[in-house]
C-alpha cells in the first residue's frame, strides 16, 4: 500500500531509527528490535519497543477477590498507608504490511516480572488517562514477530491519522503521539516533536 495515508517499510525504518536515536539522547528507553541485517530485504521483521515499570495505588486493576490485593479490607492501615503495586508495561510499534501503517502492540503485567499476571483488555482500558476516552478497537492478538499474545490498537483508523500528518518529517512520531493517550498511558516526551518539523 502506498499513498498519503500510509507509510512504506523504508519510511518506517528511517523514522524508527531517528526515533530511537532521539530516545537514546534523552534516555527514554526505546530500542530497535529485530533482524537489522535483513531490514531492507525482509519487510516487517523489526520493531521499536520500550518497557516501563511503575507502582500504582488503588484497586482499579484488581478484582475484589484477586490475590493481587495485598491488603485485606479489614486492615486499619490501608487508608493511611496505601500499598503500591507493581505494573510493568511494554509497548511495541510494528509496521503492518497489509495496511501500510504503524501498529501499536502492548502488554501490561500486575507483577514485578513481565509475563506474570497479565492485565485484561478491560483493565488496559481503565488505565487510559481520560476516563471518557475509550479506544473501541482494542483487541488481543498474536504478536506477528514474537508469536505471543499482546493487546493491540487495530490499525483501521491509522490511515486517517497518517493523512492528517502527511507533511510530517517523521510520520511515525506524529502518528504515535496521536494514539499514545489511548494506549496504557503511553507518555511521549515533547522533545520528539523536533523530529516531525521540516526545517
Instruction: State the shape.
Output: globular
Largest β sheet strand count, sense and barrel closure: 6 strands, antiparallel
This entry's quaternary arrangement is: single chain
Q: H/E order of the elements? A: HEEEEHEEHH
Roughly how much helix do the residues carry, as a percent range?
10-25%
* Computed Rg: 18 Å
How far is it from the N-terminal to the C-terminal residue, by CA?
28 Å
Name the average pLDDT.
Answer: 78
Number of H/I helices: 4
Tell me the strand order in the biggest sheet.
Answer: 1-2-3-4-6-5
Percent strand: 15-25%
Secondary-structure class: alpha+beta
Number of strands: 6
Low-confidence stretches: 62-72, 129-134
Key traits:
199 residues, 6-stranded antiparallel sheet, 20% helix, globular, ubl conjugation pathway
Folded structure, characterized:
This protein has 199 residues and is α+β, with helices and mostly antiparallel strands. Helix content is 20%, strand content 23%. It contains 4 helices and 6 strands; from the N terminus they run αββββαββαα. It has helices spanning 9-26, 121-126, 158-164, 171-179, and strands at residues 31-34, 46-56, 85-96, 101-109, 138-142, 149-153. The chain has a 6-stranded antiparallel sheet. The longest helix has 18 residues, at 9-26. It is globular, with a radius of gyration of 18 Å. Residues 62-72 and 129-134 have low confidence and may be disordered.
Amino acid at each position: 500500500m502506498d499513498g498519503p495515508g500510509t507509510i512504506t517499510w523504508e519510511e518506517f525504518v528511517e523514522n524508527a531509527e531517528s526515533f530511537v536515536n532521539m530516545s537514546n539522547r534523552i534516555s527514554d528507553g526505546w530500542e530497535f528490535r529485530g533482524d537489522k541485517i535483513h531490514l531492507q530485504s525482509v519487510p516487517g521483521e523489526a520493531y521499536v519497543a520500550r518497557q516501563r515499570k511503575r507502582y500504582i495505588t488503588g484497586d482499579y486493576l484488581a478484582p475484589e477477590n484477586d490475590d493481587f490485593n495485598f491488603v485485606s479490607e479489614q486492615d486499619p492501615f490501608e487508608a493511611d498507608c496505601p500499598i503500591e503495586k507493581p505494573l510493568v508495561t511494554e509497548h511495541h510499534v510494528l509496521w503492518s504490511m497489509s495496511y501500510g501503517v504503524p501498529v501499536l502492540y502492548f502488554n501490561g503485567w500486575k507483577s514485578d516480572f513481565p509475563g506474570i499476571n497479565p492485565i485484561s483488555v478491560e483493565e488496559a482500558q481503565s488505565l487510559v488517562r481520560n476516563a471518557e476516552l475509550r479506544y473501541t478497537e482494542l483487541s488481543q492478538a498474536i504478536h506477528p514477530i514474537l508469536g505471543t499474545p499482546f493487546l493491540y490498537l487495530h490499525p483501521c483508523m491509522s490511515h486517517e491519522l497518517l493523512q492528517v500528518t502527511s507533511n510530517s518529517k517523521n510520520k511515525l512520531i506524529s502518528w504515535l503521539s496521536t494514539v499514545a493517550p489511548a494506549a496504557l498511558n503511553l507518555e511521549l516526551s515533547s522533545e520528539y516533536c523536533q523530529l516531525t518539523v521540516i526545517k
